Amino acid sequence: MSTRSLPRVAAPALAALLGLAGSLGATLYLHRAAGDALDRVLEERLRGAGETAAGLLGRGEPDAAALRAVMAANGLEGAFVVGPDLRVVVDAAGGGAGPADLLRVDPRRVGQAFEGSPSIAFGWELGELRIATAYFPIRAAGGEVRAVLALETGQAFAAARGALRRALGVGVALSLVGAIALALAALRWSRVEAHRRLDAERAARGEALARMAAMVAHEIRNPIGIIRSAAELVGARSGPHLGERDRAALADVLGEVERLRRMTEDFLDLAREPPLEAVPVDLAELAADAARGLSRTHPSVAVRLDVPALRVLADPGRTRQVLANLLVNAAEAGAASVELSAAADGGAARVALQDDGPGVEPALRARLFDPFVTGRAGGTGLGLAISRRIAERQGGALVNLPSPRGARFELRLPLASG
Q1: Which of 134, 150, 194, 331 is an S-S bond match for 120, by CB 3.0 to 4.6 Å?
Q2: Are the C-beta atoms of 336 and 302 separated by less than 8 Å?
Q3: Higher pLDDT residue, 38 or 356?
Q4: How big is the CA angle at 242 (ends 241 and 248), to the nearest 5 degrees?
Q5: Whole-angstrom Cα distance, residue 300 to residue 148?
Q6: pLDDT at 144
Q7: CA distances from 139 to 52, 67, 116, 119, 407 (A)
Q8: Are 335 and 357 in contact (CB under 8 A)?
Q9: In order of start, what are the domains of the chain with their CATH numbers?
Q10: What values do phi and psi take at 275, rounded to 5?
Q11: Which residues have CB under 8 Å from 189's CB, separation 6+?
Q12: What's the mean pLDDT when you consider all of the chain?
């Protein structure tokens, strides 16, 4: 992983972690608040039941039937009376009197109840069920505490606690889903932002290159014209007196001047936005014309045409320039044969160029259509950049496609209606 891609990965991960931490914190807080509220409801129920039952039991001798009535009326799991010596006086379950089970009874709280202080607390657990116990003093007619009423409950709120646990699980799952969604959204935003920055950088770079190209073309256009005129004048005046080597040298000068002139035109095309004429034109005729041009400049390259009579809406001259650029690029890259085919696809025509040359280097593919990027020695890197701009300004596109052999380009142009 490159260092440039690390921020794009770290930002979504950090957003996901922050979102997960926030949602989990909120879920746990709400679960704890709901649990505390449930405990308070249970405590109030026990307090009301215990104070009422202790008052009723203080008027007579407590018995198992009265305790069962208290249990049934308040949804309790246990009720018994403890004497001063920590002996169970009576139990709603029907057991006889005997020593209290110290695993079930809290002697300290029983002692506090005999001193007149009732208490309610979650004393012990049975599996996943929390058992709340309450101790209330049973007072005689004179006000002295003669026994302690012990109440137990937990099952009455088991369903509510189970619902809370399920809600916690759902909350955690939703937090994870939300964190993943946030990470995906952050990743998408990061990619869009990276593309936006890249497009802005390319636009700024393209504008700077266009200004530079216009300046260079303006500065060298006149000297090129003077050199060409002078060389042609020398050839016209001294042609019969020049030797073979001198005529060859003069031809080389004129050839290089012509190459510089074409380069100047490319610079100007890059720097300006010449108007395009969108008219219905026969794609087969344009392809044949471009192929004839290649046969004149590169006669050793075989061109196979498979272009039906499709009418596209395009500028004839500029579209022929695009096809010619693609053919010349294939020839200059070392291709011995080129196949140019086309087919209609919906509302567009797809023109495919496949050659048998060395192909496009993978390192160049991402920047192949950038100005001044070329894989050939002596190439300017302007032909493909200009060709793509022409295609896009006509509502089409020019792309380089993967190919198992050679290079493959596809030109898309809108079909003419009717």
Answers
A1: 134
A2: yes
A3: 356
A4: 155
A5: 114
A6: 87
A7: 12, 16, 9, 16, 102
A8: yes
A9: 6-164 (3.30.450.20), 276-414 (3.30.565.10)
A10: -65, 145
A11: none
A12: 80
Q: Which two tokens stand for residue 9?
A: 């990965």
Please give the model's pTM, rounded to 2 decimal places: 0.46
User: Six-digit token pair at 79?
Assistant: 């009720």
The per-residue pLDDT for range 130-143, each reduced to its tens digit, is: 678 889 998 887 78
Tokens found for residue 199: 């497009």
70, 91, 105 from 77: Cα distances, Å? 10, 12, 14
State how far Cα 52 lies from the chain centre: 63
